[in-house]
Amino acid sequence: MFGLLPLSTMMGFKMMVSASPSPRSPEITEKTKKYDRQLRLWGDHGQSRLEKSHVCLINSSATGTEILKSLVLPGVGSFTIVDGYKVTQEDIGINFFLDQDSLGKSRAEYTTKLLLELNTDVNGEAIEEHPEMLLKQNPNFFNHFSVVIGCQLDEKTLVTISQVLWESQVPFVYVNCIGFLGWVRVQVNELAIIESHPDSTIQDLRLDVPFPELIAYMDALTINSREVAQKTPWLVLLFKAIQKFSTPSTGDSMDTTGCHPCHMKSQEKQEFKKYLKQYLCEVGLKDTDEEFDEVVKAANSALSPSMINSNVQALLDDPKSTKPEKTKFWVMCGALREFVANNGQLPVRGVLPDMMADSDRYINLQSVYREKASKDAEDILGRSQQLLKQAGLQGLTIVEEDVKLFCKECQNLRLIRGYPMYEEINSVPVEILQELAQNTEDSDQEMMYYLLLRGLLRFQGDYHTYPGLLDRDVEPDINRFKGTFTKLLNDWNATISAKEDCIHELCRYGACELPSVAAFIGGCAAQEVIKIITKQYVPLDNTFIYNAMQSTSSSFKMTRANS
Amino acid sequence: MASDVKGLLPADLGQLVNECNVLVVGAGGIGCELLKNLVVFGLKNVHIIDLDTIEVSNLNRQFLFRREHVGRPKSIVAKESALLFNPKVCITAYHDSITESKFDVNFYKQFNVVLNALDNRTARSHVNRMCLAAKIPLVESGTAGYKGNVSFHMQGISECYDCTTKPHQKTFPGCTIRNTPSEPIHCIVWAKHLFNQLFGISDPDEDVSPDSSDPEAVGDAGKIALEESNDTNGQVKEKVSTRQWAQSHEYDAQKLFQKLFHDDIKYLLSMENLWQKRKPPTPLDWNDLPDVIAGSSSIDQQTVTALKDQRVWSMQECSQVFKQSINQLKEKLENEKDLIWDKDDDPAMDFVTACSNVRAHVFGIQQKSRFDTKSMAGNIIPAIASTNAIVAGLIVTMACKVLKKDYYKCNTIFVMPRPTAVKKDLFPLDQIVGPNPKCYVCAEKPEIIVKMDLEKMTVRILGDKVLKTELCMIAPDVEIDDGQGTILISSEEGETDDIADKLLKNFIKDGTRLKCDDFLQNYQINITVAAMVDEEDEKDREKSGILFEIIGDRTQLNAKEQVAEGKKTDDQEQPSTSKKANPVHDDEDDLMIIEPTTVSEVQVAGTKRRLDETEEDTPSKKRKVESETSEVIDID
Ligand SMILES: [Zn+2]
């Protein structure tokens, strides 16, 4: 059963092996092993961005510590904690990382020390100072961070930090946990995402707008027997069926009136499918063949029009594409814009779905798409470099790898344009108020909580304390808070009012963070920071409110009101 | 801790937190976060159990563990680390399997709530049954990448964990694996089976040599072999094992390669019926290996990524890695009786990557990089610290409601990577659903029908594949309902060994009722046997190799779930059920992600059992379904 090889061959083989370099074993480093489970989420390029990043946390509250924990573990490059407070008994009570020894010590230093123990690859530093003081000493202090996270900020500091970061274009994640409520706000000036990881990517097959190389390849193939048809990828069979279907000279074809099957409505598509089956029988396939089913099934998703979605179109129409600013993303968008103007289509993605076929035939078909994708990418690269030259954007280099990824993902490009929080805090939340005025139902509780949280910020600004801080009597604070909140609503010309029980609950917790809410919100904020740093997945845009009492949450976008 | 901070918790909750006793099952990704939350919340009594030891790949998220802890028991180290932060808590740690008989119903009764932080279906199902039996509320959870979920289960109030069919551990018909692979996963499963055959504990179901009894091939040379393999007693005849063969050739890589990828393939080619409608495989010769890579889109990735193991290897490279890994494994075998396949063991992973790729090349199937092969072979689910933190926070929030007996506020909650289309919600809630009256676990008298091929199935397969794998029983007893109480399978070790390898036709027939009982789980189910008729099989050649099929109420369950899911998803085109799918595992619509770290091994009653071959997720097709419907997630 097992063939013996001639001795000479064996000898020859042995010599061959000893002569060749030692077997190439995949290099798996300790680090790759440690990060294996997350590399599968954001890849090594995402990991490399994470490792190069430097995040700053203002105030290492329980929530702040939770956020940094979830950034230190996956290997953020380095972190800085800016925190002027000393550890209090309450801190120890709600922050897992603080023990009794830490009482009265610098919160920044103690937290930094404990966080660094979680991952030896990470660097960290503690600055025992309040952020406003730091800014006084050095107005550019925050400019070099990849992301700044702010916890436990009073209204005035929040406004200052938000403005400083907006002006220096540093992404800012504001986090506020009070009792059973959580508030996360992402402030980015502009965030371009190439790898948005959509739930599903539309196949890019160009059946409705075949490129010349594809037509030439298809034309050269003849399918003249069942055997050949079985070995032929479904894409080829489908292409040929469409071609025949759309050619008026074919006597048995429908009156297509120029409508390509990719652009048909579902009922017309059924007609085409009937034709497709007929065609498959003509080339020799039997309707019991696996391949027959495969073509018919694949046709469902393959027959979609090649088009440019609204997200991408908006990018192409953006003034920054016409006159690119000095970022790789916008220069490549500019190149893409020219490309689309010339070709009417986006670059070919060059990725085919798996298909049952003879592997040679599959490889050949694949290389037709892949070569076209390379050619298109080369075109984009050339245009990008041309644009760089024209605009005199020296110092910026765009390489093949950038363009290849950009082209592969060009269907999925996303752009987030932010709204600065300092403006939000200084303006009337018109849309929220309108929404609440229209819906008196409970469904918009989170929006009401948003207003209450704004009320808390105002209260804190006015009284330099939070209502219901722990050992005080709650009742007078509730009344004071109601006063502040009513005044705020009046300032906003709002016609709504908050429920008594909401206000009571809010005041009962004082400024305290609940550990489970801190854990939850900490995880949420960390995920947003990771999305911003890795530039993968689409971050929160831009507000998230969580209510642990009902386990409900809501995310919405605060925008500049049209006035 | 929070309960010490005056006024932080409402008085009633504060007292409940102080007095309660909680069981955390699992000290992995979620377990570490959960233990932290419970300790800081101020719970005084926490029990934590985990069977596993710490691995390097845990360190990116399981923050109670450090580099120096690698190799030590998770539960013990988690306890030690947590106590450093809060010495006042009483933590009881068990380095043990939750399915051990000492963790009986009485053990569960001491807890106010059980919090699952598990990573596999068998253990989840088991804890579910124990909680049902002990009438203790259960909070279940899982994460996968940016996704996660938390749900509540309580007898009589909400559905139990088994009320909706859970995605099954994917298995493939034996003939597909042995004779006619058509997808990369088939080659990977084959390679893992081969590993076990060569170096580990071989399982007769994991045979890797050509299967001449393939009904499709009947009429060929195979027929004779089929007749030879069963003797008159209906007992499967011993044959020379692959391992014995390899040993007799001193694990010579070249000879093994030649047998596996040349001679065996030639033999397969001799079964001409198989290749009438398929592209026949091409045998490979060690001395004449092509330097091309079977068609795949992964070449694209190669340019984008830098990781060395993300590149697809040529046949030359595969053969070298094949040789190198065999030599390493052979060396290991000198000190160990049997090797257990582990995705994090480099030689084992290298071996599977090389073998599956060579086989893929032989059959003209798309090749996969080592990185991708590892994902598929080890059923690796991405896992990050932040999602675990989110889920653990949600578990504690739900546990508080459970302690306050606010059961009807314990809606299932999902964690999504992006807002859902409908409510723009990152954390959508589900209605609380009452128990499914036809549930095969929590119904009053669970009943199912199992179609079996009595001619081919042995008693052992009934026990291992139907009762343990499918129905998640741990130590089943099976009695034939024939009025005489004939014992078919006993949970007592050795008691029914003599008949374990006999064919079922010797004991039961169409219509026989089997009373199955798991004493520990306090779980009884009646199975009605429906004999599989041969002609039926031949008509549907895709069923070849399928030994049994669970029908009846389980099928109805499936139908019900599909309707429910159709509503939830925004009318995406449902993937049509693949013809290749095994009807037993009709899970195209199920989205299950089983966490990576420990799925490969579950310790049952002291013996390491290998469940891994069944944990895989099919590649492209299924992944799409997951992301589209994204409702049921299960994991970490
Ligand atoms: Zn149930």
From TrEMBL, chain A:
The keyword rRNA-binding does not apply. This is NEDD8-activating enzyme E1 regulatory subunit. InterPro entries: APP-BP1, ThiF/MoeB/HesA, ThiF_NAD_FAD-bd, Ubiquitin-activating_enz. Residues 1-19 form the signal peptide. GO terms for biological process: protein neddylation. Keywords: Signal, Ubl conjugation pathway. The keyword Glycoprotein does not apply. One of its GO terms (cellular component) is cytoplasm. Pathway: Protein modification; protein neddylation. One of its GO terms (molecular function) is NEDD8 activating enzyme activity. Residues 35-561 form the THIF-type NAD/FAD binding fold domain. Belongs to the ubiquitin-activating E1 family. ULA1 subfamily.
UniProtKB/TrEMBL annotation, chain B:
It is found in: Nucleus. GO terms for biological process: protein sumoylation. Residues 450-530 form the Ubiquitin/SUMO-activating enzyme ubiquitin-like domain. Residues 181-271, 320-374 form the Ubiquitin-activating enzyme SCCH domain. One of its GO terms (cellular component) is SUMO activating enzyme complex. Residues 561-636 are annotated as: Disordered. Residues 562-571 have a biased composition (Basic and acidic residues). GO terms for molecular function: ATP binding; metal ion binding; SUMO activating enzyme activity; transferase activity. ATP binds at residues 26-31, 50, 58-61, 74, 97-98, 119-124. The lineage of its organism: Eukaryota, Metazoa, Ecdysozoa, Arthropoda, Hexapoda. Keywords: ATP-binding, Coiled coil, Metal-binding, Nucleotide-binding, Nucleus, Transferase, Ubl conjugation pathway, Zinc. The keyword ATP-binding applies. Pfam families: ThiF, UAE_UbL, UBA_E1_SCCH. The keyword Transferase applies. Residues 319-346 form a coiled coil. Residues 17-406 form the THIF-type NAD/FAD binding fold domain. Pathway: Protein modification; protein sumoylation. This is SUMO-activating enzyme subunit. Belongs to the ubiquitin-activating E1 family. InterPro entries: ThiF/MoeB/HesA, ThiF_NAD_FAD-bd, UAE_UbL_dom, Ub-E1_IAD_1, Ub_act_enz_dom_a_sf, Uba2, UBA_E1_SCCH, Ubiquitin-activating_enz. Zn(2+) binds at residues 160, 163, 439, 442. Heterodimer. The active site is at residue 175. It comes from Folsomia candida.
